[in-house]
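User: For a benchmark we're assembling, each entry needs the component sequences followed by a predicted structure for the full assembly. Here are entry 17's components. Please fill in the structure.
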Amino acid sequence: MKWIYTKNNRPVRLADIPEMTMDELRAQIVGRCREGRRVVAFFGMPNGRTETVYAVLADDEANRLYISSGAMGRERRYQAITPEAPRFHIFEREFYEDTGITPEGHPWLKGVRYGHDRADHEKTMESYPFFTMKGEEVHEVAVGPVHAGVIEPGHFRFMCQGEDVHHLEIQLGYQHRGVERLMVERYDRSGIHLAESIAGDTVIGHATAYADAIEALSNVEISRRAQAIRAIALEMERAAIHIGDLGAIANDVAYLLGNAVFGVTRTLVINTLLSLTGSRFGRGLVREGGVAFDFKPDHVREFKEKLTKVSRDVELMGEAMFEMASVLSRLDHTGTVDFEAATKMGLVGPAGRASGVSLDVRADHPFGIYRFYPVHKRTMLSGDVFARSYMRYIEIKQSIEFIFEQLDGLPDDKPLISPLHKLPSDSLVVSMTEGWRGEIVHCAVTGKKGKIVRYKIKDPSLQNWYGLAYALRGNGISDFPLCNKSFNLSYCGNDL
Amino acid sequence: MINTLKIRKNQGEQAIPDVTRAEIRPPFRGLPAVDGSKCGRCDACREVCPVGAISARPLAIDLGKCVFCGDCARECPEKSITFSTFHKIASTSRDYLVVDGAKNAEEYLSGAIEARQEIKRLFGASFKLRQVSAAGCNGCEWELNACGNPNFDMGRFGIEFVASPRHADGILITGPISENMAPALEDAYMCTPDPKVVILAGSCAISGGVFQGSAALNREFLDKHHIDLYIPGCPVHPLTVVNGLLKFMGR
Ligand code: SF4
Ligand code: SF4
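Assistant: Structure for entry 17:
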């Protein structure tokens, strides 16, 4: 047996994970990826003086996850997987930066986040050699890390020929706070609070992934009611950000009415979340074992009333905006990522779905209440800013419908927070959720004493940042803000 | 056109007419009410607090560390910690952020922001800030953006976030200040013309928040420069920000 199969949130014992040489693992991975499986996690864990490498592949159609491992010899190099399975590109870059083990033949081993615990401190942000371009009409534009607006920092270098962007190189890492390490050191005191702050716009998404992982390890099934409340909050988060982003996109095409109306509508959504949780972002709601706040009949009434208005306003505004010629002329055929490129890069979430990549954890590897109410996957084909915007519009409506369905049938089992058991020793769990940006993956590994010894986090941004860089090729530099908003990626989620 | 008019009519007037009087509804967690006399010294609150914000004798909460998660209030069997919805919690003094039972909302507010004539004279009518996110998680950043939206609309008071530090009267920092962002923060500060102010927004900026003590941070900036205003929250609520800034400007 070369792989052990499991499912989302179903722990396996480390001893049951097959182990092979790194060469064998590589051959296995390449073979399975040819059959259509795809990577969701790939990380190293120190094992004495060497390293054990864990690979998690997903079979999305069969709702299955496959795990295997490789023992790194003393050579500290292996033949890169990326040339055969391009989706691995960012995972191998990250692996190389973390461990110093070289994937030979990888086309581009640039640092992913310049973490404080990276293997090679000689490699710094300042000394990184950017790509350059030569020619008569060639010029470079560099922006960041501090940008013009109130946003997180990152550095962008546009290599342009006249007005057109030939290539955009993105440098991240400024937001590195050492989250994965802190998770190991402090999970029993502040794990959930850290999870809520991995990306502050994805509080519920990451908190759910973390809580699911801990609950699965401790073999506790939380109440249906708690599951439903988490899912309602997750969809509120999705709707709120999508609405906010539509406003930002409207702003970037100088459609100020859209900006104002979507902005105000988003406020309504997050203030409604506050009426339940005390926080506009739902902080404090998801806790290990369940949720900290319950829906009273008043809440149900209020959620329905507010969301009815939101739904109407979004529809009115959306129909007007997506019909307006001056808006469409900016969105259509801008920043196109076709299906093939999106698949190769491994795009996830609405950005992927806008290019026809049919992935959605809620449908493919359902968790919590989604196991009983799977979400219907929607995709578009054009892969441009229009598709990435319109996808959001579709998803807002989908989320609101889902919330109504849940509110009408809220299970009334108990408790709100179930007590947890001690974590098992030497186990690994993969916990996936579908945040508003796409697939979130948390992997937790416990050691001999049942303590977490490795915590690996993947925000959807990790894969999608490269999609943004790619989308800009051949576009005018003035289209950058628009492309950027249509992806709206997380710096913190990448930098951890 | 007809559609546009319909949408405008449907939306009506959205700005909060008087932000200084606006209230936030429960269960929002603003200024905590701490009653040490009820405390049975079981330490449940201190055990559950993720950031070490609670001190025992006297029972007090440091709003500069607190992430307003509410876990302590839920765990306390004596109800000696509860959270009010009072949101005007910004202060010009770091020590002032430590609240014990002695201060209720009005008392807290009366001493929170020390009015400085020179600030009022220089920035009272127009206050432009360069925001620097130094590993802020995007929670505080979203809320700062919201300060300018049609609801809170701080632009009507002459407060604005500007694109360049060279156009700014001060720096407003979010996030725990990562090592990787420390040089850029210092640069932004240096590029801001004198006289300038420094404002910290969010528990990350004030104390490191949930990331306090991480080896990936470099908070030397805070030792080097004077901090003029602290705005607690995780994230900061727009009303806390707007009211804090207004009071600071002497309005
Ligand atoms: S609300 Fe503040 S003081 Fe209470 S547990 Fe949370 S962080 Fe600590
Ligand atoms: S204070 Fe809270 S919301 Fe603000 S940056 Fe820190 S973790 Fe994010």
